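Design a sequence for this backbone.
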């Protein structure tokens, strides 16, 4: 799901130390073992440059060392260098396809980027080989949830009830999955346990605040979300949801401040930049709004609302080539948006390209007969939960 379902994992990212060191001989073996010890210690204490240097030196001595490739993948994952992480982990998998931990980390790279559909096969393979892996089961259950496979998510998460039923994040995910799957008994069980475990916690106030937001009750949402902030001001997405609540009330200054606060906590979440672009554009600061929309699509190229926002800005600036490009991206991602079709048609008309404009307007009228436009509602303030968005 776009924006990331920001549930905090209870488990550490797996780290593979000292694979295939045994059997090496002479001074080289001692050197590699010492480098593993140095790299492992550095990775454990979070000194990522030191860890990278150690594992790179191992590869200079043994280019096919599986553990060095795998651990470099972990280093780059923690640094959010996704392509480099994936390259190292793929190299490790090619050398040792039987090692489930490598596939788990590959899944984590996709998962951390928000590409849950691509993470699922990796996690499924780990659960198949190591059915007792709680981390793999939890990640797979969440990934199923994010792509809308609610029954699969509920089944997977329920299978780890005994390990997870003391954690409010796990219980919230199971409540949502079971509810969406129509499994009322399981949803009621998870909800009851959530209320019991989460009583008085920041997370529970966040979940209640989000429920008010979904019902378009911003005042009640703000009251609950402020309780969450008082308990944990750095709770992921609490400021985002406060921003949504203030946006529902059309208090743009406070909305902007809350989205900025969440961005400071979660700098990689594209939705913060998208919302900031929307709010700031409404305030009339087009240049800053454009910058935020650009940041949003840089982090999530599938965020149709930001492409749409960019298209509107470029149309306003009469930069029609960029406007067409932005609206084309939005139309590809949200083919049934009448707002995109209308805006693109206006650009075509400004360019004198009447056949293309007429095509878009005809398509727009056809869609209007069957459904209301969703994207314009989203842009103009309809409640959107990035923790439960659309999958990639």
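Sequence:
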């Amino acid at each position: 799901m776009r924006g990331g379902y920001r549930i905090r994992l209870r488990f550490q990212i797996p780290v593979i130390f000292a694979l295939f060191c045994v059997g090496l001989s002479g001074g080289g073996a001692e050197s590699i073992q010492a480098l593993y010890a140095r790299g492992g210690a550095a990775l454990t204490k979070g000194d990522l440059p030191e860890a990278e240097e150690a594992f790179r030196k191992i590869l200079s001595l043994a280019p096919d060392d599986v553990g060095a490739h795998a651990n470099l993948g972990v280093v780059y994952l923690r640094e959010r260098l996704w392509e480099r992480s994936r390259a190292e982990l793929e190299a490790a998998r090619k050398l040792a396809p039987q090692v489930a931990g490598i596939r788990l980390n590959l899944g984590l790279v996709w998962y951390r980027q928000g590409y849950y559909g691509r993470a699922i096969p990796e996690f499924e393979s780990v659960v198949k080989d190591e059915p007792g892996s709680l981390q793999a089961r939890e990640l797979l259950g969440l990934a199923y949830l994010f792509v809308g496979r609610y029954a699969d998510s509920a089944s997977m998460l329920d299978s780890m009830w005994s390990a997870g039923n003391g954690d409010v994040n796990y219980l919230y995910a199971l409540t949502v999955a079971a509810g969406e799957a129509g499994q009322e008994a399981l949803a009621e069980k998870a909800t009851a346990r959530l209320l019991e475990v989460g009583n008085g916690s920041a997370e529970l106030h966040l979940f209640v605040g989000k429920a008010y937001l979904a019902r378009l009750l911003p005042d009640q949402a703000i009251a609950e979300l402020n309780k969450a902030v008082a308990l944990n001001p750095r709770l992921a997405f609490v400021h985002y949801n406060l921003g949504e609540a203030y946006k529902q009330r059309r208090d743009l200054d406070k909305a902007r401040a809350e989205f900025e606060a969440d961005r400071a906590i979660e700098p990689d979440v594209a939705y913060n930049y998208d919302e900031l672009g929307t709010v700031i554009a409404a305030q009339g600061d087009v240049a800053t709004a454009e910058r935020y929309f650009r940041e949003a699509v840089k982090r999530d190229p599938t965020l149709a609302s930001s492409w749409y926002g960019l298209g509107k800005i470029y149309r306003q600036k009469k930069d029609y080539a960029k406007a067409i490009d932005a609206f084309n991206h939005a139309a590809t991602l949200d083919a049934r948006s009448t707002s995109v079709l209308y805006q693109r048609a206006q650009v075509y008309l400004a360019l004198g390209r009447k056949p293309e404009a007429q095509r878009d307007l005809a398509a727009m009228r056809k869609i209007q007969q069957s459904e209301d436009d969703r994207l314009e509602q989203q842009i103009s303030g309809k409640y959107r939960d990035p923790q439960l968005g659309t999958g990639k």
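The chain has a mean pLDDT of 86.
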